[in-house]
Specification:
The complex is a heterodimer. Chain A is of the alpha/beta class. In chain A, about 25% of the residues lie in helices and about 20% in strands. Chain A has a 6-stranded mixed β-sheet with strand order 5-6-7-3-8-9, with helices on both faces. In chain A, strands 2-1-4 form a 3-stranded antiparallel β-sheet, with helices on one face. Chain B has a single domain, classed as Orthogonal Bundle (ABC transporter involved in vitamin B12 uptake, BtuC), CATH 1.10.3470. The longest helix of chain B has about 30 residues, at about 1-35. The N and C termini of chain B lie far apart (about 55 Å). The chains are: A alpha/beta, B mainly alpha. Chain B: This is High-affinity zinc uptake system membrane protein ZnuB.
Chain lengths: ~280, ~270
């Protein structure tokens, strides 16, 4: 079962240098400010979670950190020898492209079948190896993406909304899996999410983003921060990890709350379906 | 004596057609996967402009066509980045402007009788030994480039950002694809003409999808199906005295319909991994 020896070098080196850091990064696109003087860092062997409302620039920050986009200002530093395993937000493959899971896993680097099978076993889906990727469900696809991100033994896992398109039970499983894997391998994790409930419980550091960094710190600290409470007024630490369901409001398909609670003096943001930045 | 001559130009035509189809099919698979059919159309419509420029400047026509196609392709990519106009609007504007500009430019060339129909719909029966050589060179370079770029191109097609994070030089690979498309268009122009080149790329690829379990199978099958269409089209055009380029496309279309009418259990599936 266990894919890696936990005493492997990846964990042995104790080096507090951040794996990845953004220093005073600003980004503008189409005349709109997306990131405003953002400084963040991702430390080794920690789970860093970026939260924020839709359109807060979470995915943009990830793209800048990954080096996909050049920031207009500021810079991004990577630790030497950083190996990133990246799991994109969503992956849709045209039905016209015949592609099995095995082929998908080896697009960039070839690997023996045993390694691939082991990798899929680690995320709980060894039976999918020869299936066409288009036949996978949302949850299966996320697992395959995770397995792929782990293939080159990364010391940093970067996950963009890892539980998107997965039902609420599956979401818990995906986060549990990520948590297990980081304890096994000792890799750092950088995760973007707008779903606080499931994510904050497992986080070591939380960055609350809304174009600028509203606040950062340990989950308890951030959840007590006034700016955080202004952005996410209905969440308190008791609620985290538990899905509460009160019947004085309505949900839309995406699970978003639409009706205001009494005494809630703010406008709710649109649902997660529109978030692609 | 007459028979010998006849054989000769038919064989030249067949050879040219087969060579073009062998490259256009596999490249067509990418055109289909990346949803670039209209893009291919736009670039191929600009080939006529290359012909006009080549004649005006007294340069090699194939070279000029390739250059103009690459230039239009790059222009398209740059314009699409600005995102002021929807992609299909932009493609429509460029496709028809380039085609009209090409036709206008060609008719402006005085003292030269350019057979417009031959460029629009192809003139495979007029392929000379020199043309055969340039098709072989252009097609060969394109095939080599395709094989070299295969894995990074596939990675890019599946997920561009993922590929970039994993170290694929995205810009370079995309430029390579543009060059590939331009080379194939230049080679295919004489076979099916600028208006029908895209058909020779996407129809065989679309037919091949039903049989293929891997990307490679689909590409190779597309090449084979394209070659069959060339053979059938050439025979049909000789038999019924129809224009060859369009007849090849009709043959490809009939193949596509046939493939999709076949019930699933009759479709042979290649073992895929």
């Amino acid at each position: 079962m266990s894919r890696k020896d936990p005493t492997e070098p990846a964990t042995a080196e104790i080096d507090a240098t951040p794996l990845l850091a953004a220093r005073d990064v600003s980004l503008e696109r189409a005349g709109r400010v997306i990131l405003d003087h953002v400084s963040v860092q991702v430390r080794p062997a920690e789970v860093t979670v970026v939260i924020g409302p839709n359109g807060a620039g979470k995915t943009s920050l990830l793209r800048v950190l990954l080096g996909l986009w050049k920031p207009g200002q500021g810079r991004v530093q990577r630790r030497r020898g950083l190996r990133i395993g990246y799991m994109p937000q969503r992956l849709q493959i045209e039905p016209v492209l015949p592609l099995s899971v095995r082929r998908f896993l080896t697009l960039r680097q070839r690997a023996p079948e045993a390694v691939l099978r082991e990798g899929l076993e680690r995320v709980g889906v060894p039976h999918l190896l020869h299936k066409p990727v288009q036949s996978l469900s949302g949850g299966e696809m996320q697992r395959v993406l995770l397995a792929r991100a782990l293939l080159n033994r990364p010391n940093l896992l970067v996950l963009d909304e890892p539980a998107q398109g997965v039902d609420i039970v599956g979401q818990g499983e995906v986060f549990k899996l990520i948590d297990d894997i980081r304890h096994e391998t000792g890799c750092g994790v950088l995760m973007v999410s707008h779903d606080l409930h499931l994510v904050m419980a497992g986080a070591d550091a939380v960055i609350c983003l809304n174009q600028h960094v509203c606040c950062t710190g340990r989950p308890e600290e951030v959840s007590r921060h006034p700016e955080y409470q202004r952005l996410f007024p209905e969440t308190d630490m008791q609620g985290i990890g538990v899905y509460r369901h009160d019947h004085d409001h309505v949900h839309d398909v995406a699970g978003d709350v639409h009706e205001h609670h009494a005494g809630c003096g703010h406008a709710h943001r649109p649902g997660p379906g529109g978030d692609s930045r | 004596m007459m028979d010998g001559l006849l054989d000769d130009f038919l064989i030249r035509a067949l050879l040219a057609g087969l060579m073009v189809a062998a490259v256009a099919g596999p490249l067509g698979a990418f055109v289909v996967w990346r949803r670039m059919a209209y893009f291919g159309d736009t670039v191929s419509h600009s080939a006529l402009l290359g012909v006009a420029l080549g004649v005006l400047l007294g340069l090699n026509l194939n070279l000029m066509v390739t250059l103009v196609c690459v230039a239009i392709a790059i222009l398209l990519v740059l314009l699409q980045r600005r995102q002021e106009l929807a992609s299909d609007t932009l493609l429509g504007i460029l496709a028809h402007s380039a085609l009209s500009l090409g036709i206008v430019a060609v008719t402006f060339i005085e003292g030269l009788r350019v057979d417009l129909m031959a460029y629009l719909f192809g003139d495979i029966l007029a392929v000379g030994t020199g043309d055969l050589l340039s098709i072989a060179i252009g097609g060969g370079v394109a095939l080599l480039l395709l094989i070299l770029l295969w894995r990074p191109l596939l990675a890019l097609t599946v997920h561009e950002e993922l590929a970039q994070v994993e170290g694929v030089p995205v810009l370079l690979v995309r430029l390579g694809l543009m060059l590939l498309i331009a080379l194939v268009i230049a080679a295919a122009m004489q076979v099916v003409g600028v208006l029908l080149i895209t058909a020779l790329m996407i129809i065989p690829a679309a037919s091949a999808r039903r049989f293929a379990a891997t990307p490679e199978q689909m590409a190779i099958l597309a090449g084979i199906i394209g070659m069959l269409a060339v053979g059938a089209g050439l025979w049909g055009s000789f038999q019924y005295d129809t224009p060859t380029g369009p007849t090849i496309v009709v043959a490809a279309m009939l193949g596509f319909i046939l493939v999709h009418l076949l019930p699933g259990r009759l479709i042979p599936h290649f073992g895929g991994r």
